[in-house]
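Re: beginner question about structure tokens

> Can someone show what the tokenized structure looks like for a real chain? I only ever see the sequence side.

Sure, here's an example I had lying around. Input first:
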Amino acid sequence: MPDHTPGQRFRAALSAEQPLQIVGVINAYAALQAQAAGFRALYISGAGVANHSYGLPDTGQTSLEEVCLDVERITRRVSLPVLVDIDTGWEDPAGAVRAVAAAGAAAVHLEDQVPAKLCGHLPGKQLVTTAEMLARVRAAVQGKPAGEFVVMARTDAAAVEGLAGAVARARAYVAAGADMIFAEALETLAQYREFCAGVPAPVLANLTEFGRTPAFAPGQLREAGVAMVLYPLSASRAAAAAAREVYAAIRRDGTVQAVVGRMQTRAELYATLGYTPPRGS
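And the corresponding structure tokens:
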């Protein structure tokens, strides 16, 4: 398969790695670090944009333009294909797909929650009807550019309607044109086996920390039929905890001496950026 377009690169990565590990990045520098670590695909989380770019919770408050800004910054700097969270599509899934694709994305996922959405691992989620989500999926598919761009449909139905309901919805979403399915908040490998066996499309498992899905190993998920494993905010959570400790140490001690050994060096920064400073600087 040729791999010139972002969508083609995403599908090639899926063929090359089973399951495909997709890691979340919150900015271009994090994307460079993930690329250096050897990942084949990246993810831009709606929660990541809200939390880290705007200091907001993941409750549907960010705009399409704000998400596209982060997408463009990342895809301009790295060649890895990027999956982008477009939440519920901002009432215009076709336009959202066109805009995110123009910013350099390889794939999107959109979900079947009501527009005032919640994190997929919180209680109290509310879903739109299957018919309304089918309209979202069809609109998103209409917005796809050429070049194997991927539209992934996410279902939060397992926590609301049970596993059978989630499978039924996912099958309908595939019939409406979804290329792949994001199965949110499943809790056991048996559930993944049943879900994957019942859905005629590649399935993604979301291994967000502190959520309802255990930290299954890739081999376990492969045996259950899972095609993709997502780690949406792992590195940013670790970086946020480290930053909190550094700020506290500087404020407490008036010096970085207690924490400087845990910092990235200037040489490591330049290596990641691919930058060679002038001699004598």
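Each token stands for a local structural state, so reading them left to right follows the chain. The mean pLDDT is 94.
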